[in-house]
Amino acid sequence: MINNARLINNSQGNHFSIVGDTYRIVIPGKQTNGEFAMIDMLVPPGGGPGPHAHASFHESFYVVDGEVEFKTEEGKTIARKGDVITIPKGGAVHSFKNVSGNMAHLLCTVVPAGLDAFFEEIGTPVQAGEFLPHPHLDEDAIKKLVSIAKKYGQEVYPPNYLDK
């Protein structure tokens, strides 16, 4: 018998609009004693977060569907359905963008948890399948985002930071 095993069906978890993408917190850190979190990400064409870094946790992305361009200071690569991108602890600056004309679907796991709480704080709650437009961030909104990011061990970089 397996103790504490459970099914999390596709209707469970809170959905948040983050920079125009919709993320579902599948397994929040508060359910794993902070050991890890799992986030289901739907990224429309052209969507994805700008350059950022987080030194204190490992982040992995499994591409369920679509094509996503991942950038780091070392260069860029295209990840396609079935590929995995991993960002180890240490703070590598990275970003990703859906470069296809179709929805990209990623499954993100972070060890330890924390990114999930960051998304809950900065995100706008939405329904499953609901997408909000990419928000316009004025100077005050950017300062607020940077401040909240620091609270969760993240550093935000200018949008063109990884352009070469």
TrEMBL record:
Domain of life from the UniProt record: Bacteria
Domain Cupin type-2: 41-109
One Pfam family cited in the UniProt record for this chain: Cupin_2
This protein's name: Cupin domain-containing protein
